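Example 3.2
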Amino acid sequence: MVTTAIQAPKPLSSKEQQEAKTVEQLLRSGTPELVSPAGDRIELPGTVFAVLKQVVSFMALGQAVTIVPGDRAMTTQEAADLLGMSRPFLVQLLESGVMAYHRVGNQRRVSLNDVQEFQKKREVKRLAALDRLAREAFEAGLYDRGVFPQGGADE
């Protein structure tokens, strides 16, 4: 059994950032392949290639990158930090059934996938509420324009 620990991301040196930029440029051309030390070649699957490109582009910008499996169990504090809310508020949400969780001893754990799904749903609701408020403000005559933009987008 292999276990991994999540470590704090380490910033790139300027040399490593420049090397990442070079790799990023190489990833933009041709069919991506890995070459083993023995010279064996294998084409990268599309999903692996997409992840690699994204990781390298962040690194080329000097950003640290952490890769975490989606089914990783998070503490309530980690989940609350990711969602930008207090841990007690998250615990209230969990207890009300908004998100699945399980217990490890007396502590709650939530999966990263569930936290991200909650985050997406919350964003959709937030945008819908903003659109509704903008429409109400428009209908109340608080905008100078004569026509409300479709889809909530301004122009």
